[in-house]
Amino acid sequence: MRSTIGFDLDQTLIDSSAAIMAAWRAVAEETGVRIDLAQVDSRMGIKLEDEVAYWFPAAAIETAAATYRRHYVALLPRLTTLLPGALASIAAVRNRGQRAAIVTAKHLISAEPSLAAVGLVPDELFTYVHGSEKAEVLTRLAALAYVGDTPADMTAARQAGAVAVGVPTGSFSAAQLREAGADVVFASLQEFPAWYAGLAIDPTEESVADGD
Fold first, then answer.
1. Structural domain of 104
2. Which of 14, 68, 116, 198 is such that its CA lies 20 to 30 A from the CA of 41?
3. Is 167 within 8 Å of 12 (Cβ atoms)?
4. pTM for this one?
């Protein structure tokens, strides 16, 4: 039986955009490197080192990433909030006897203090995975569904045979999530609990269908 629901973290469960942008501004100021925050936002969801590579030479990536994380961890306690419906969605999963796993591209160094800042405790936490790496984690978990805010999240869910649930609470529109293969798109996680309660789960065939 598929007993795990996967959730992305940034801009799915938590609003971390203010802390992310503030950290990038601090990196630009400290290093003197011009960083276009609009471009950073357009790629939101990828691993930090992959974003750093757009702005710094290969030899400087590790140092620049460490600089970013230093600023981010210092800024996040006052700039990170739960997104509407996040706690209710986690509770809905647990109330049905299933597990809520967070599968995120965020590094553990940043993920753990982010969760602590908003009082969010997942049943399982998988960090520093993106794209096909997320699909591999979701496959190992036999995840029933994966909830995320990026096209890459939708692709990962589909690759893992999970229901792809999109929320346009990040940098990407509902249309972009649908184009990437989302099975369902909500305006926010506030819509998730009722939908999830209506999912019909077949414990023998490990398949799901929308409930009436």
1. 4-15+81-205
2. 116
3. yes
4. 0.93
